[in-house]
Design brief:
A: 298 residues; four-stranded mixed β-sheet; two-stranded antiparallel ribbon; disordered N terminus; B: 378 residues; mainly alpha; 0% strand; globular
């Protein structure tokens, strides 16, 4: 799949697993420890330049540093995890919207809704906001039910979907205890809107935004008619296409309260490892034994 | 006269269905009412319904070819044919329900045998082939007696495995407490048998014009079987719902409450319980009525109607309870609703498929020797 010139050609399944493959992991590790890379070597994309570490640096910068460190490891040694501090979440829904924009999600498809909960009675009332991405379960109930192996857990723990393999039976949606999978019915936001020369509204302007490619799983995929992912199940993938380029998931960088943290839970130096070790951490529906990798701080 | 009315209804249903199929093909799932929360709708419920009947009627065919029960002698071919068209109707429903029906081959060539769904896909395919082979052989039963016996035995196992497997398809899902009960795979074979018996009651009641002792005996046996299986079904229903309410698991209680007192309470109380269970039980308890063809047919029809409602009451309520209560209103979209009623397109497709199955049956019944002479004589 890789040529000696270094140019890499990938088929669709390889695209999904490219950085996660054992081959790739085996190639990166020698580069890190200084051994010569085999002929099939696939190099990491150029990672963003970061400033030198500082004591009180922004958590985003620290998390990017954590991310880059994790990317140097073989994929199976990474354990991507997300921590959401519910005390900091103000319910602005910026994460939801930025996710929609990043992944060009059509109507009815949502990867990260923010659940709202009212607690107590007047005068002792409070509201709690619970962002709910895919839990990327260690034991994902959605995976074994798929009749065609279209969804699986990568070595780094992210549960992915091969849109070209999925037959659209929706069994995985019924199996998810968190309602984290949605179906792409082929709906469009601009359906039935007036034709107008505009950038943001109307068929001729906004519709363009609906058909330009999205880059989920690192694969440019323009949206048209019945082509996948229309007719497929869709879900949050921790912005895998961004992670692999050293970028944090979109919901993390757009969180105005710095309430969402992301990193490698296998790295004891990472910010998420620090947060997960706190006593006020919990996970949703622990009793089901799915072992989510999304943690909440209460 | 009855035959003409049935032909007319079937043709009208097919015409209505053609519009639905056109809509489904031209616009995909856009005009379907199910969404990402109630993700399975009418077509999945009717898939369960029709394939259940197929398994049930096949079991009745084995009473002729395998167990040689005298009263069912020479009824096997008709049972096999009914199994074939109901299986076809069920599989057509689920095929159109797929997001990418053109990829169904992947279930065969790139299978995940850990998936109950894939096991069932393979199972129904083999089951369908067995029915087809047996149907062919049934026209020369003397010559293929041994084969018919062997295939009946394999098919009987498959019929039980598949109807139980459909229960397991739902039952394995720990995310849905309403489905996640050990009783599910046990209940479904009984449901299949009951619906198979009911279809035979309907068919023999409508078409068997031979007023002789055999007809009366056959209807009596089918009536008793349907009655017993109906009572077993009611017992399962009671066990299921009472345990759920007593156990008090919120998601489970919510689903049962949705069935009993929710938006579509009438589907349970009127269709499933009153028309689908109590009225036919009353008819079947009365021996004179139960052996009168029109009444037997009515009882069979009502039992089937009740089963269709029961399948819907299994599929929809479990999905209409949010996995996390706050999901309601977390993100607004017509596809993110927890209530569901089939759209016109969905009804059209289902009516069309049912009409097509009925039309094929009527034509085949008139043109092929599906029943022995003593049944067809009038």
């Amino acid at each position: 799949m890789a040529e000696s010139s270094g140019k890499v050609t990938l088929d669709r399944r390889d695209v999904l697993v490219k950085l996660a493959s054992a081959v790739f992991a085996g190639l990166v590790a020698p580069a890190v420890v200084g051994e010569p890379a085999p002929a099939e070597a696939v190099t990491l994309p150029e990672l963003p330049q970061l400033p030198p570490p500082q004591p009180d640096e922004d958590p985003l910068v620290r998390m990017m540093r954590d991310l880059q460190r994790a990317l140097q490891k073989p994929v199976e040694q990474r354990r991507w995890a997300m921590v959401i501090d519910l005390r900091k979440c103000v319910g602005c829904h910026a994460c939801t919207i930025s996710c929609v924009v990043e992944n060009k999600l059509p109507p009815g498809v949502v990867y990260r809704p923010v659940l709202e909960e009212e607690i107590g009675t007047y005068p002792h009332v409070t509201r709690r906001f619970i962002p709910r991405p895919c839990m990327q379960c260690e034991r994902p109930p959605c995976v074994p039910v798929c009749p065609v192996n279209a969804t699986w857990k990568r070595p780094d723990g992210i549960v992915v979907i091969d849109y070209d393999q999925c037959i659209g039976c929706r069994y995985c949606i019924t199996a998810c205890p968190y309602g984290a999978r949605t179906f792409d019915f082929g709906d469009r936001y601009t359906e039935g809107t007036p034709r107008a020369q505009a950038f943001l509204v109307g068929e001729e302007g906004a519709a363009v935004h609906e058909t330009i490619p999205m880059f989920e799983y690192g694969q440019p995929r323009p949206r048209h008619d019945e082509a996948s992912p229309v007719g497929n199940t869709r879900k949050c993938h921790f912005c895998l296409h961004r992670i692999e380029r050293g970028l944090l998931p979109e919901c993390v960088v757009t969180c105005i309260g710095r309430a969402t943290y992301f990193g490698d839970a296998n790295d004891p130096e990472s910010l998420v490892s620090e947060l997960i070790a706190r006593p006020n951490v919990m996970r949703l529906k622990e009793e089901l034994g799915t072992e989510p990798k999304v943690y909440y701080l209460l | 006269m009855v035959r003409r009315i049935l032909y007319g209804l079937a043709i009208l249903a097919v015409l209505f269905g053609l519009w639905g199929i056109y809509d489904r093909v031209a616009f995909g799932h856009q005009n379907a009412a199910y969404g990402s929360y109630v993700v399975w709708g009418l077509w999945v419920a009717l898939y369960l319904f029709f394939t259940g009947i197929a398994a049930g009627t096949f079991v009745f065919a084995t009473l002729d070819y395998l167990f040689r029960v005298p009263i069912f002698a020479r009824t096997g071919r008709l049972s096999l044919f009914l199994a074939l068209i109901t299986l076809g109707a069920g599989l057509l429903h689920i095929w159109l329900d797929l997001g990418h029906p053109e990829r169904v081959w992947k279930a065969y060539l790139q299978p995940n045998f850990n998936s109950v769904m894939d096991q069932i896909v393979w199972g129904y395919t083999i089951f369908g082939l067995i029915i087809l082979m047996m149907l062919g052989m049934s026209f020369q039963p003397q010559r293929y007696a041994g084969w018919l016996k062997l295939l009946s035995a394999v098919g009987l196992f498959l019929a039980l495995f598949l109807s139980g497997g459909v229960g397991a398809l739902l039952g394995v899902q720990a995310a849905r407490p309403f489905w996640h009960v050990g009783l599910f795979p046990v209940q479904f074979p009984f449901f299949s048998l009951a619906s198979g018996a009911a279809l035979l009651l309907l068919v023999y009641g409508l078409f068997d014009r031979a007023a002789n002792e055999h007809r009366r005996s056959l209807l009596r046996v089918l009536a008793i079987l349907t009655l017993v299986l109906q009572l077993i079904k009611l017992y399962f229903l009671w066990a299921d719902f009472s345990q759920s309410i007593y156990g008090g698991v919120p998601m489970n209680v919510a689903a049962v409450t949705e069935v009993l007192f929710g938006r579509y309470w009438w589907a349970f109380w009127i269709l499933q319980l009153f028309l689908g269970s109590i009225v036919p039980i009353i008819i079947l308890l009365w021996p004179r009525l139960a052996t009168e063809p029109p009444w037997a047919a009515l009882a069979g029809f009502l039992v089937l109607l009740g089963f269709a409602a029961a399948r819907a009451n299994i599929v929809f309520p479990a999905l209409s309870v949010p996995e996390l209560p706050q999901l309601i209103g977390a993100f607004h979209s017509a596809r993110l609703q927890f209530h569901y009623f089939p759209s016109l397109m969905e009804w059209a497709v289902s009516v069309g498929i049912s009409g097509l199955a009925g039309l094929i049956f009527l034509i085949a019944y008139d043109r092929l020797p599906l029943t022995p002479e003593h049944v067809r004589s009038a």
